[in-house]
Write a structure and sequence with these properties.
The chain is of the alpha/beta class. It is 19% helix and 23% strand. The strands form three sheets. It has a six-stranded mixed beta sheet, with no helix packed on it. The protein has a three-stranded parallel beta sheet with strand order 1-2-3, with helices on one face. The relative contact order is 0.15.
Length: 262
Amino acid sequence: MEGFSFHLSGYALQPRADLAARLVDRCLTARVQGLEASRISIGGGLPISYTDADSWHGFLAAQNSGHYHAGRTFHTGDFYPYYSPAAGADALAALLTTRPEGHGAPLSSVLGDAGVTLLLEPGRALLHQAGATVFRIQGVKERDGYRILTVDGTSLSLSEQWFNSEYLPDPVLVPRDRDAEEGTFPASVGAATCLESDMPTWRKIPFRRRPRTGDLLVYPNTAGYQMDSNESPFHDLAIPPKIVVDHTDRPRPRWRMDRHFT
Ligand SMILES: Cc1ncc(COP(=O)(O)O)c(C=O)c1O
């Protein structure tokens, strides 16, 4: 017996502070019963900001079904909060200064007074600015006013898509040849399975160069929620390999296949 833990969906501070204080009370009760109970874990849920406040609020105000393939509708609340006023470590600081319901002091004092250690399990916040996901364009379908790029992967590797949401950072187009035509080329991104709903990106992204078969699409900052937990060999597609890039203590970065794929 070491203590108690929880993980809450969402990113709100007050419910986390309230529940943390309740677990501190549980530690005190457990100690009366002769148990050690010296720590609590509050799980994950520290938000991160992918963009600034103006860009985020501007996007939310402007977005409409015309911006997405098949006229799909996303409501404001469907999205991850891509901007948070207090993100990462600042969110933790704000949590510690939040006063839990029924307490006259902030969470930091509630913990300190009880001699309880706070543990965290940050997921997305720990991996902020890490990782990228690369797809190869297999085909380009021209639609009315935009195109669909079909790629050699599935939306199962971008977790926002499984939650009926959309991973909003623009993928970077890396053209195969330097002579790609410049202009504005809106395109959504379709995956390699038979499901019409299997879309790595519903949004029509205004690419600045004409996307072509063989080009790469690089989604940035995907380490936190890019994973193959939902992938399976069912479609006869290889589970995506993972590449580790190591640039610590080296003059030049080195890469290698992740150990699971060697
Ligand atoms: C038990 C637990 N801890 C931590 C996390 C990480 O959450 P986050 O990425 O929001 O920090 C999760 C995510 O689902 C979880 O289930």
